[in-house]
Amino acid sequence: MPPFLQWTLLALEHLVINEQRIGALLESASGQKPNEQQVAGYLAPLRVPGTAQSLGRMVATAKEEDLAGFPDLPLPILAIWGEQDSWVPLSALKALQALRPDMTAQVVKGAGHCPMETHPQEVAEVVTAWLKAH
Questions:
Q1: Can you tell me the distance from the alpha carbon of 115 to that of 119, in angstroms, rounded to the nearest whole number?
Q2: How far apart are CA 93 and CA 107, in angstroms?
Q3: Does the domain formed by 70-133 have CATH 3.40.50.11320?
């Protein structure tokens, strides 16, 4: 691993992973200010040695997923999207629906990027109904 990348990952682990930054990240994802327990719950596993570096490597090597095979997947698909998702906009859901018109899509009103955390009852009901239908 090049020295600059090693230094960057080390800085990520020791300087970036803190309560304030995790709180801001959670607020951005959910559209709601997290409480202390939520921040602590996300922060604890990130403080396991090597975890932050692994996440940094994942982000550094991430790329847009090739959707060429998506229309041909031989299985039913359920997509649950937050109406207020600022990370992955509704336009991405529309693009997936264009590729798979048979896909079931549910937009959760008032939810951000993580509707399963901010609206668990609604998401559970959607998933349960979808599973019963399939």
A1: 5
A2: 9
A3: yes
